[in-house]
Design brief:
Length: 411
């Protein structure tokens, strides 16, 4: 027997007496409709626009919800997280407060490798139990889609365990989960410093096995001096492309290894961080249609001084997304609303850029533009309804959650 949520998703539902920020490309700015309505049937939007244009036929036998002149946006999308992890790294936070750099923490045996040890010691059930509160915090702020990376297992069985735990998040909560295989995140201790051999393991053994089980929607890597070179990442991406998996890249965060240009050469969905990206990299991203994912939580938490070149991305016409980068070492952040405020105050992004960055452009960074990210017919009825006077409040406020209701796939 179908549950109440399933039944409600099959009915026609109409949200009326609302102001819409549709995020539609066919409208300017945020796609605002002052007196709007959204209609969903079988979990999909069939109408979103001015209430005066609502077809009468859609109103027959429909459930009508009066929104009380509240604002409706698409459900928010957190397009870059490392949500599945075990334990925390508060001790490293103390080290950095005492003056240690990100690189110094990593070379002292901390950093990603310490999270690897914790994840390997945890069971899949442990990971699900520990991750669920972090996911619930995002959901409570109107998030309806979240990307979750692996990258703390660094061997086949533990990477699979991490990805299975991530998939279970979407089974146990009303949220869409996209999983990303991040085997090329760091060098595990047993590799004994041999990056080439480990990259062979990732590309030739781990990736095919994970693809065969359908555990990953995309492949990512960390292209940096303390991680992997562009040449090493290219080997992983070539293997991913051969298996039909799209790629993304942690690029140009701590130095300019031309990761943005590498991502562009492989037609990546996104390049993320990008503090040191140069004009050639931004131009390559623009030509390839790659989304730049801004991660102000990490910038703030590790006290970086080099900001990503926002003006350069604007001039080149590069779409910009915004995400929490939730992870235990450099961005223990589970508020996408606060992340938008950080993107505005730290990076100088506009309200419009921030809101598009957690909706339409975040969907593009996940290859989901046809499914979600805007209020348009054919897309999932993923909505967030807000007690606000203007969309700017979603970026302006800190530590305040004005979510009135969250709708996932029409229910």
């Amino acid at each position: 027997m179908a549950g109440a949520g399933e039944e409600s998703s099959k009915r026609t539902c109409i949200w009326r007496n609302a102001r819409l920020a549709t995020m539609s490309q066919s409208l300017s700015g945020l796609g605002v409709v002052d007196d709007g309505a959204v209609v969903a049937r079988e979990g999909r939007i069939v109408f979103a626009g001015p209430a005066a244009q609502l077809p009468t036929a859609l109103m027959r036998d429909a459930e009508i919800i009066d929104c009380g002149v509240r604002w409706i946006t698409p459900g928010l999308i957190d397009c870059h997280t490392h949500l599945v992890h075990a334990g925390n790294r508060a001790n490293e936070f103390e080290m950095r407060l005492a003056g240690a750099t990100y690189e110094e923490v990593a070379r002292a045996g901390g950093g990603i490798v310490s999270s690897v040890k914790a994840l390997r010691a945890a069971s899949e059930d442990d990971l699900v139990r520990e991750t669920m509160p972090r996911l619930d915090a995002l959901i409570a702020e109107g998030v309806t889609t979240v990307e979750i990376k692996s990258g703390y297992g660094l061997d086949l069985e533990n990477e699979k365990k991490s990805l299975r735990a991530a998939r279970r998040m979407g089974d146990e909560r009303a949220v869409t989960v996209r999983t990303t295989f991040l085997g090329a995140h760091a060098l595990p201790p047993e590799a004994n410093g041999d990056k080439s051999a480990y990259i062979d393991l990732v590309a030739k053994k781990m990736l095919p096995a994970i693809a065969a089980e359908g555990l990953a929607d995309a492949v990512d890597g960390f292209c940096e001096g303390i991680a992997f070179s562009p040449e090493e990442m290219a080997r992983v991406f070539e293997a991913a492309k051969a298996l039909g998996l799209p790629v993304r890249l942690h690029a140009d965060q701590l130095s300019n290894l031309h990761g943005a240009a590498l991502a562009a050469s492989f037609g990546a969905l996104s390049a993320d961080h990008l503090e040191y990206t140069d004009e050639a990299g931004a131009s390559a991203m623009a030509k390839a249609g790659i989304v730049a994912v801004m991660l102000p939580g990490a910038f703030y938490f590790i006290r970086e001084a080099k900001k990503p070149p926002i003006d350069l991305f604007r001039r080149q016409g590069v779409k910009m997304a915004v995400a929490t980068d939730c992870n235990p070492g450099t961005s223990p952040l589970t508020s996408l609303l606060l992340t938008m405020n950080m993107a505005a105050t730290l990076f100088g992004m506009t309200v419009e850029e921030c809101l598009l960055g957690v909706t339409r452009h975040a969907a593009a960074a996940l290859g989901m533009s046809s499914e979600t990210g805007s209020l348009e017919p054919g897309k999932w009825a993923d909505l967030a309804i807000w007690d606000i006077e203007s969309p700017a409040e979603l970026v302006y406020r800190m530590g305040f959650n004005p979510l009135h209701a969250r709708i996932w796939r029409g229910r």
